[in-house]
Amino acid sequence: MSIYDTLNKEQREAVFCTEGPLLMLAGAGSGKTRSLTHRIAYLIEEKGIAPWNILAITFTNKAAQEMRERVDSLVGYGSEDIWISTFHATCSRILRRHIDLLGYDRNFTIYDASDQKSLMKEVLKEMKIDTKQFPERSVMSEISSAKNEYKSPLDYRNEYGSNYRNQRIADIYECYQKRLKENNALDFDDLLVKMVDLFQANPEVLEHYQDRFRYIMVDEYQDTNTVQFLLVSLLAKKYCNLCVVGDDDQSIYKFRGANIYNILNFEKVFPDAQVIRLEQNYRSTQNILNAANGVIANNKGRKEKKLWTENQKGELVHFKQYDTEYEEAEGVVSTINFLSMRGVEYKDMAILYRTNAQSRIFEEKLKQRNIPYAIVRGISFYDRKEIKDLMSYLKVVDSGMDDLSVKRIINVPKRGIGQTTINRLQEFAIMNQMSFLDAVFNADEIPEVARALAKLHKFADMIENFRNYSMEHEISELLEHILDVTQYRAELEAEGTDESISRLEDIEELFNDIAYYEEEEENPNLRDFLAEKDMYTLNAGIDNLEEEDNKVLLMTLHNAKGLEFNNVFLGGMEEGVFPGYGAMMSGDESEIEEERRLCYVGITRAKERLFLSSAKRRMLRGQTQYNRHSRFIDEIPSAYLDIKKNNSTHQEVKKTDRPVKYQYGAGAGKPYNLSDFKIKPAGELNYQVGDRVKHIKFGVGTVQEITKGGRDYEVSVDFDRVGRKKMFASFAKLKKVTI
DNA sequence: TTTTCCCACGACGGT
DNA sequence: CGTGGGAAAA
């Protein structure tokens, strides 16, 4: 009996199909990680492929970690030589070796979202761009999309530069890249872009990695974007042993440039590709799976799939509408308590939500009841202010090339070097083509900062002192020294607030981290430490979550992808929350479809029980909002749904005569009525085809088509700025404009 | 010039 | 509700 006997026919087929391109269409819970890990084992143990010839790319670190563990337990010797990592980590690792070929220094810094934002602000200021007209947020997302499509500033200009706005964005893009390079920094998107640049400019490097990675596997292929596609294509070009795995129904990263056509057109790009479908679900009960199928069936243009399971029917999917978000949280937590008393372990329960903001109330209620919990990615450890501060100190000691780090610490803790001084130093630095830190060191030559000279000298001396100190001390000693000299710790200790105490704890955690690094590493040194930790910038999620920790997990739906739990609580099932306000207002049906896929992902996380909940009334944007329950609730066939009463004295609209097994929540409050909140039909439209209309977000456009669909009108409009959009009249709130 | 405080504004998701 | 930017206060 071999390990492969436990696989089903299709899974085995996928495992044994090792040569040439292979597309695995794997539905939710169909055992795709299992197939992938067995495939790796098969390559090594049966086909005699060297572990280091295998590259497995996942989307998140969590997924990479999990795959690593499962491969480890399957493959005996040499499994640590297999590259299993995310796109970004793979790129980072390879670029650390070769990026000098692109004119960067090999100890480059990776900018996270907030670093990017600061840099963009500076760029806009330097270029004297009106941030009302070009909000940094939208400029950044524009640039990010360009990068995801592998478009350089020049490409962007050539392709879109026909109007003034895009020309300016091309200017900003160009300047932003220039500044990144001067800082010897890459942003997240750059990691991928520079990697492709590297391979295209250096065929010999590419070939080296082609020979190295003869067998390539890509997980979550439906979420890859164009650069990632290019990257994979380049790497796989020589041997063509490329296996991609995905499910178009679980594509939830369109907003980040995911190109669904990568998976839909795989067979066209690789004509000799084999296609294998995994359609048996091993995870969920029939009721849960049927609910999920019912929801996703509302999307158009998907690859038709027939997911089935041999599992039991199980309980119905529970849904309850509460009065407020507090009662919702209360209800969920008391159900958790109830289940726990019935012997369900905390770690078998998870609370999922659409937006991070929703986590707070759940957290509060869990605390009140002393239920152990962990939030997956509240703020990642390395995102925290104090950690970023201290890491910046370390970076500056190692190399002063990254201006952002220097600016971050120059006045932290406060030492009387303010914005004006910083601006003048920056000007001088740009004028003389030097780094910001060099400007600080040469402050004597800048008459404008004469006033702050003494303070600047002190700062410069301090950095010098740290650098000397670091020559003959370990990293932990250096950090201790920094905390001491800067009084960083003393200040926090003096504060004595809850917040400062938690910051101090974080600092201790950083020491643990360093200690661990120094123990593990043969030759620990500051530069390698920083390079390794910059990877953690990329490390979202559960890194420090112990497997044996018995805790309720809280996370966003996006974070839950690829995970499974016996009991899933999905909160905030309300129009405007899920689907989100933005998706609804965009008038773009494809955005609703993405939300629906996200809902599908959420439902299919559950193995045994699924609890959906909503609140009638919720604080949103500082205001109380009244939201109808989510349309996705309506899309679950009622045969699989059990709607809980809410202390109702009112009539029920959807009656269920099924036994209620788990009465959860003691939510008081008004009854609900599912038909109360149906969308009002648009009634008469005050515009017709050919009219000029105005949309709140898209601006002015011409109505092309109006069709009556169900209870609403579907209107198709050609917008001057953004092109053609299809939308529902009742949401779009189009106003006729008279010319 | 720096720091503090207050008001306006803006919201999804994550490598 | 939280953050960020700008004006008043030190």
What is the percentage of strand-forming residues? Answer: 15-25%
Q: What structural category do the secondary elements indicate?
A: alpha/beta
User: Which architecture of the largest domain would the CATH scheme give at its second level?
Assistant: 3-Layer(aba) Sandwich
CATH domain class of the largest domain:
Alpha Beta
Number of domains: 5
* Count of extended strands: 23
Helix segment tally: 30
CATH superfamily of the largest domain: P-loop containing nucleotide triphosphate hydrolases
Main pleated sheet: 8 strands, mixed
Mean pLDDT: 85
What separation lies between the terminal Cα atoms?
78 Å
CA gyration radius, whole angstroms: 28 Å
Overall shape: globular
CATH topology of the largest domain: Rossmann fold
Keywords: ATP-binding, DNA-binding, Helicase, Hydrolase, Isomerase, Nucleotide-binding
GO molecular function: 3'-5' DNA helicase activity; ATP binding; ATP hydrolysis activity; DNA binding
GO cellular component, one term: DNA helicase complex
Enzyme class: isomerase
